[in-house]
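Reading a protein record of the kind used here takes little practice once its layout is understood. An example of such a record is reproduced below.
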Amino acid sequence: MKLTATIQQQTRKWFGSRMPVGDKVRLNQNSSYIWPTKSGYMLSVIVILMLVGATNYQNNLAFLLTFLLVGVGLVTIIYTYKNLQNIEFCEGQPTELFAKQSGVISITLNSYNHENHASIGIGWDSGYKKGVANLIYVDVASHGLTSVNLTFIPEKRGQQELPRMMVSSVFPFGWFRTWAYFGLARKVLVYPHPIEPPQRFEVSGGDEMESEQGKKSVGNEDFYGLKSYQAGESLSRIDWKSFARERGLHVREFASVQGNELSFRWEEFEGFPEEARVSFLTYMVLQASHQNLAYSLSIPGQHIGFDEGDVHRKKCLTSLALFNSTGMG
C-alpha cells in the first residue's frame, strides 16, 4: 500500500511539473497525453484476430477490412489528440464563496485557433478516480466563448488557490482518450463559515440588547432574523420556507430596534476560539445585511464604522475572511 501511494504521489508530482499555470492557460502538445480506452483495446484485439484469420485463409477482403480499420484508428489518434489542442481556459467571476459551503467557479473556454472542439470534459482533478473523472462535457465553438460552472467547496477561509483541473476528450469514436492538467493562478477569496452564535449581543438586564447608537428590545414589531427552533416555541413563528429548503427547523425572531444601528464586536464572544468568533460575526453581518440594518464591525486591529448595503457587507466579510489568515489558504 505504501509503495502504491508513493508511486501515485510521484506520478501526480510529475504531471504537476509539466502542467501549464497562469491567469489564462492554452493547451499544447507538451501538456497533453493520449492513451487507448477499453474500446480501443478491444478494437486492437479484434484487428489482430482479423489479421490472423486473413493470413490463415488468404482472404483479400479480410485483409482490406483489417487495414481499413488500422487506417481509421491512426486517423482517430490524430483527430482525438488535436481536439484538445489550442483551447484557452480562464476563470470567470466566481460567486460568493463561504467555507464548508458549496459555491460555483465559472471557467471560460475559448477556441484559440478558431476551430470547433467537440465533447470537451472539464472538472477538478480531485474528482479523478480509477480512470473516470467527474467531468462536465461541452462543445467549444470556433467563435464565441463557452462557460462551465464547477461546484467548489472550500475547507477554509481566506485567499486560496484553486485545485488542479483536468480536461479530457474521447472524440470522435471513443477509441482513445486524450487528457491534460492545468492550473489557474488567480486566487479566490473565501468568506468564513457563518455559524449562529449562542447570543447575538451582550444582554444587560431584561430582554434588551445593546448597540452603540441605541437599544434593541425583543418584541413583535420587526422581523430580525432566524434562530433554531426550541421545543415549546409557537408554531406560528416557524419559518416554513427555510424548512422546505432543507435548512432545518427555524423560527422567526422579531425585534424593535432603536436607532437602527448595531455594533458587532469581537469582545462579545470572549472565551470562544478564534474561528468560532469569526464565524459568529460573519453570521451577524449576513443577518443584519439581509434586514437592511446599519451596523459596525470591530475586530482586533480594525474597525469598520456604521454603514449598510452590499459594499459595506463585502468589506466586513473580507476583513473577517483575511483576519489572521496567513497560511490558511
Observations:
- The first strand starts at residue 21 and ends at 22.
- The two ends are 30 Å apart (CA to CA).
- Helices lie at 2-18, 38-57, 60-82, 240-244, 274-290, 310-322.
- The chain has two domains: 11-191, 208-322.
